[in-house]
């Protein structure tokens, strides 16, 4: 998992819960990196999982809800760092349906060894989109949060249904109905 995911996560934790919480979740975890991350480094997903689990235990907020909040924060990073990428699109359905064939291609140019989830478009119309999310990491709520922020970015709203295809969350169907 790319280091930017860790550095931004810890920045969010510091902003929302304070530096003591950052120290607490790092020291409570058994991290191969020791909790020292660089944006361009690559780290084990198990480290992110430990940090999320300890943050959840300390705050009483579910991991899924933490991932939603983190996705909102991360979308802001994308807006600030890659405005040209977002400007390519005029509609949230178009943008979300382009994740696999355009956005991930661009991400791989910056982070060639990034392990990204797969998004397969099952069906698409002007106001509806069904996408299958596949990942060895059950971070589908992070994807859901990014989709929510995508609609917000385009001043649009949608109903997004999440259906687990695999109980462990490594394969999920998103059914999106734009309002």
TrEMBL record:
InterPro entries the UniProt entry points to: H-NOX_domain_sf, Heme_NO-bd, NO_sig/Golgi_transp_ligand-bd
Signal peptide from the UniProt entry: none
Domain Heme NO-binding: 2-161
Family matches, as Pfam families: HNOB
SUPFAM superfamilies reported for this sequence: Ligand-binding domain in the NO signalling and Golgi transport
Superkingdom as given in the UniProt entry: Bacteria
Name the UniProt record assigns to this protein: Heme NO-binding domain-containing protein
